[in-house]
Amino acid sequence: MKDNGITEVPAFLDHIQKEEEAEATVEATVHKDFERQIPAFLQDTLSNAELDAFLNHLSGCPACEDELSIQYLVYAGMPRLETGETFNLQRELHDYVALENQRLHRRRELAAAAFLLELGAMAAVALGYLFLL
Ligand SMILES: [Zn+2]
Predict the structure, then answer these.
(1) Which residues fall within 8 angstroms of residue 71, CB to CB, at 6 or more apart?
(2) How many domains is the chain built from?
């Protein structure tokens, strides 16, 4: 039977669709990971790398920003509904995200400073050996 090429088309379309599905799965995983990290984020227990990825994703994903707002409402808002305290959750959350950004930068600086100190200590030890020789 002569191959007229038409049978190739569905296979090609199928391939495209599979790729799209795979991409959608990766996307969904990213959002799922974000969602799962929200409680740790609100308790400030994420590692620097996790926090970095979290904040990066947050700044570019309105859907996850909404999810964070909802969880923040439950996390910070509900206890205070009972006490009748007035609050502006959107602003508080905004402030908290800014604070976490600052913390991440400060921790990075500290890590860099510790690394330099260690380098300096190693250099001192090396120099000490040189003088002993
Ligand atoms: Zn997202």
Answers:
(1) 38, 39, 42
(2) 1
Measure 32 CA to ligand 1 centroid, in angstroms. Answer: 8
Domain that holds residue 78: 8-132
**112 falls within a domain:** yes
Tens digits of per-residue pLDDT, 3-60?
Answer: 655 666 677 778 778 887 777 777 778 899 999 999 999 999 999 999 999 999 999 9
110 alpha carbon to ligand 1 midpoint, in Å?
A: 29
Q: Is residue 2 part of a domain?
A: no
Q: What is the dihedral sign for C-alpha 39, 43, 49, 53?
A: positive
95 C-alpha to center of ligand 1: Å? 20
Distance from Cα 12 to the centre of ligand 1, integer Å: 30
128 belongs to a structural domain: yes
- Where is pLDDT greater, at 128 or 56? 56
The residues whose Cβ lies within 5 A of ligand 1, an ion, are 31, 61, 64
